[in-house]
Design goal:
Length: about 400
């Protein structure tokens, strides 16, 4: 359900009041799970390994940390625990909706781990199932991988699905496999380089520690020589003054020699520290290159999907010139619609009507994560009307670029 800006605050207030009244006297809520809804068909199967055959009322216990949804005013977020037969009590982050006709609040979705990662995973699961590529049985089969931490993001999910089946309308498997091999090879090379630099930095650090130890030992010798010189000077008799002075001179010469060793050790330590810093800088550079290689590979895949989707609607994808993203403005009114606005360093502003093109906030969330980085946005122009939307500053997606 969508709300305009005039009634959004009223709905949010009523939603918050409804749930706060319940939680004043109890920390338990009975919630309704529709058998044909996203929570039962996607979220529960992959995250908890369970799916209900019929509409179900579930008891949530130890409910806390409640707050309304900033984007959907009729939704309410809580942390809670619930029982699954044979599994004991399990935690979850539940998104609830105030009941419209039934007795119990409805579960919109449930997350189990990092919210940002889980949100992308939810969107991918729901989209794939609605398009007919997967069923709840696939999510149940993938639950052990999710439970073990091997399936965390939507990228992990797609990789698992591609390894299990490739439909007739999918990208040819040999192309996908070659792309995966190319990306894996480059990433492996960069990782190997990074690991070698880490080992080099560790060797330099050990060398610096050794030189510091030598320097400290030399200083200790110098102090002993100085103490011996003072003791000899105080205790010597007149008859032995000449001999003791000669001995003191020898000790002083030895001390100067040791001091030179200390100075050389200090210089070696400084050089080793500089080398360690250089190795660390190279390691960080390699890590950045590895991350960007992964980002570029993911961008290529996403751009291919976006191009195919645009062509199906007789539109073409138009990328913008790269620039640094300065700010993301949300829920801004533009031409009568609530929009997400991207502000770039060159002053250019790009607009997206969120109700139509970003109803779940995935593009906006991605944009927030890229503030301060160089990005390129894409617009979809009708094939027979080039520039219709791109010239007006409307965008559909955003990508990080080098």
């Amino acid at each position: 359900m969508r709300f305009n800006q005039l009634d959004s605050h009223k709905v949010m207030h009523n939603t918050s009041k409804y749930f706060e009244e319940i939680l004043k006297t109890t920390d338990c809520i009975d919630v309704w799970i529709g058998s044909r809804e996203h929570a039962n068909l996607d979220s529960l199967p992959i995250r908890y390994g369970v799916k209900f055959d019929h509409n179900t009322v579930l008891r949530l216990e130890n409910v806390h940390a409640g707050q309304t949804d900033g984007k959907y005013p009729d939704r309410y977020h809580v942390e809670a625990e619930f029982e699954i037969e044979g599994r004991g009590r399990l935690p979850g982050h539940f998104v609830l909706r105030k009941p419209h006709s039934g007795r119990h609040p409805a579960v919109v979705t449930v997350w189990r781990k990092d919210v940002k990662t889980e949100f992308g995973l939810s969107e991918a699961m729901q989209s794939l199932r609605k398009d007919g590529w997967t069923t709840s049985a696939d999510w149940l089969a993938l639950h052990p991988l999710y439970e073990s931490g091997k399936l965390k993001t939507h990228g992990d999910l797609l990789a698992q699905l591609l390894s299990r089946k490739v439909g007739s309308d999918s990208i040819p498997k040999d192309i996908l496999e070659q792309e995966r091999k190319n990306t894996d090879k480059k990433a492996a090379e960069l990782l190997a380089s990074y690991e070698e630099m880490e080992r080099r930095a560790k060797r330099e650090e050990q060398r610096a520690k050794h030189n510091t130890s030598v320097a400290l030992e030399a200083i200790d010798h110098l102090e002993k020589f100085s103490h011996a010189n003072i003791a000899l000077t105080k205790d010597m008799a007149a008859a032995e003054a000449a001999r003791k002075q000669a001995e003191a001179a020898r000790i002083e010469a030895e001390a100067e020699k040791v001091l030179e060793q200390v100075q050389r050790a200090a210089a070696e330590t400084a050089r080793a520290q500089a080398e360690a810093a250089r190795a660390q800088a190279e390691a960080e550079k390699a890590e950045t290159e590895a991350r960007m290689a992964s980002v570029e590979a993911e961008n290529r895949r996403l751009r291919e999907n976006e191009n195919r989707s645009a062509l199906k609607q007789r539109q073409q994808v138009v990328p913008s010139d790269p620039d640094t993203l300065i700010e993301v403005l949300e829920q801004q009114m533009h031409r009568g619609s609530s929009c997400t606005i991207l502000v770039l360093r060159n002053g250019k502003r790009w607009h997206m009507k969120t109700a139509t093109f970003d109803p779940y906030g995935t593009v906006t969330q991605k944009a927030r994560s890229l503030v301060g980085r160089r990005v390129s946005v894409t617009s979809w122009d009708p094939i027979n009307e080039p520039g219709k939307w791109s010239r007006q500053g409307y965008f559909r997606n955003i990508y990080e670029v080098q």
